[in-house]
């Protein structure tokens, strides 16, 4: 205070994380690849990316494919002309968010 600066604001918990918004799944120029990206969630330490290659309404069809600290992921080694569904959730100190709305793309 004697230096003329205000004191630092006390930290407060972030609370529950929202589901990652605006998930997109797009083709790339290479066969067997789909790139996914989503908007950053404030307070997330990492993201869990899941893929489903059959019915997105079947909970047993979802499999974890990666954990990443970035808000994008390049999925490779896919079968051409097949539809893949993706969903993402944020992970933080307050726990996991709900899953994003699913997004799909057909691999080239």
Describe this structure in words.
The strands form 2 sheets. Strands 3, 4, 6, 7 and 8 form a 5-stranded antiparallel beta sheet that branches. The protein contains no helices and 8 strands. The chain is elongated. Helix content is 0%, strand content 38%. It has strands at 24-27, 34-37, 46-52, 63-68, 72-75, 83-92, 95-96, 103-106. With 108 residues, the chain is mainly beta. The protein starts with 23 loop residues before the first strand and ends with a strand.
Helices, by number, come to: 0
Radius of gyration: 18 Å
Classify the oligomer: single chain
- Strand % is 35-45%
List how many beta strands DSSP finds.
Answer: 8
User: What distance lies between the first and last C-alpha atoms, to the nearest angstrom?
Assistant: 62 Å
Helix-strand string = EEEEEEEE
């Amino acid at each position: 205070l004697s230096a003329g600066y205000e004191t630092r604001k006390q930290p407060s918990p972030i609370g529950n994380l929202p589901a990652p918004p605006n998930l997109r799944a797009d083709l790339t120029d290479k066969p067997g690849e789909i790139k996914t990206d989503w908007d950053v969630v404030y307070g997330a330490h990492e993201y869990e990316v899941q893929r489903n290659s059959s019915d997105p309404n079947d909970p047993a069809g979802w499999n974890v494919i990666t954990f990443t600290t970035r808000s994008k992921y390049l999925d490779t080694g896919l079968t051409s002309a097949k539809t893949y569904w993706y969903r993402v959730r944020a992970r933080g100190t307050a726990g996991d968010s709900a899953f994003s709305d699913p997004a799909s793309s057909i691999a080239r």
